[in-house]
Amino acid sequence: MTGPAGSCHCGAIRLHLPHVPNEVTRCNCTLCTKLGTRWAYFRPGSVAIEGGPIDGYVRADAVKPSLTTHRCARCGSVTHWSAIGDHDRMGVNMNLFDPDLVDALPVRTCDGRAWPVDGP
Ligand SMILES: [Zn+2]
Fold this sequence. Notes:
Layout: E1 5-7, E2 13-16, E3 24-27, H1 30-35, E4 39-42, E5 48-51, E6 54-58, E7 67-72, E8 78-83, E9 90-93, H2 99-102, E10 107-110
Parallel strand pairs: 3-10
Antiparallel strand pairs: 1-2, 2-5, 4-9, 6-7, 7-8, 8-9
The protein binds zinc ion (ZN).
């Protein structure tokens, strides 16, 4: 891994990225708003995730949920999301990384609140 490394608040979970992302995404859907996340997207398997334990949450209000959000079971920091089923994308919460690096990245906004609750 040549990209940046980050960790949850307590340090139990560490993530290593393959590279610095080109941008971060702020989504206004009800879940991302409550989580307070800034996402960057990578191919599953290209991000090294070490440590644990990790909890998962699948939207309880979704008829056909498309992803699981994961968080540190100890400190509650949201670490990443993974797709349910076959998908070439996962999301990493960039708030776990150096703020000087992340705050300098362009922010893309995503109108997730406008999506149907059972997925984009
Ligand atoms: Zn933690």
